[in-house]
Amino acid sequence: MEILQFLIMPFLASLILTGIHAYLGVHVVERGVIFVDLALAQIAALGATIAILVGIDPHGQGAYWISLAFTFLGAAIFSLVRSRRARVPLEAIIGISYAVASAAAILAMSKATGETEHLKDMLVGNILAVSEHDVIKTAILYGLIGMFHYAFRKKFLLISIDPEAAEAQGISLRFWDFLFYVSFGLVVTSSVAIAGVLLVFCYLIVPSVGAMLFSESIGKRLAIGWTMGTLVSALGVYLSVRLDLPTGATIVCTFGGVLFVMFIAHLFVSKPKYEMKEPSVLRSGHKAEVSS
Fold first, then answer.
1. d(CA 227, CA 257)
2. What is the value of pTM for the model shown?
3. Which domains does the chain have, with CATH numbers?
4. pLDDT tens figures, 155-172
């Protein structure tokens, strides 16, 4: 009972992270910008590092607003760069942003005291230390962002899945991209402060990838992703306490192990379509050659 009482707040925080990130992960995977979460998370961590460097409490409101300002800057850059006619792919800009933000954070931490501890918190966080106040505040914020995305779900999904159709309907890709990345940045900034960069990335990508193995429907993928995230969170938090391991890193490794098991299960339950029947294009071409 003592262990369960100790784990209740970290587990609730994990559920909240699962709820919002599994949904956002569907958009990220469909857009093909897999590392945007990692880049924005690193940019948010850079903002928090700068706050520490200038003497601001890393757990205070000042550090949060500086981190959020850095994240909004990254969101503006990503929304402006996206274009079907752009000569440089968005994923390249995202990768460069992540590398520069990581290097800048390391440079900033080299001038701060306790840089090793700051680096560990930035990467894997300390979700065991989350308070009831943090859980309630994060739940309210993510609930509002979830309501915003639900209200405009058709536009957000159309832009993620079929941007050409969205443009044909007169929807401004850059404006709605900016709204998407701003809301995404709000989530990432809060999540990094709780769970660290690596765990936030896993919550975003791994449930979506695992769900894609078994379904193409958005609704089913969300259901699978939420279920996977909930079970992995519970198992990872429990293992970290039982084995006396860092919680964030334990959940990340648990995500990787469960995804591997899901992939093996997918290989057994699925049958490649190309083994079942001949492609229709080849059949029609073959018939045309026979008739001629």
1. 16
2. 0.73
3. 2-205 (1.10.3470.10)
4. 888 888 888 888 888 888
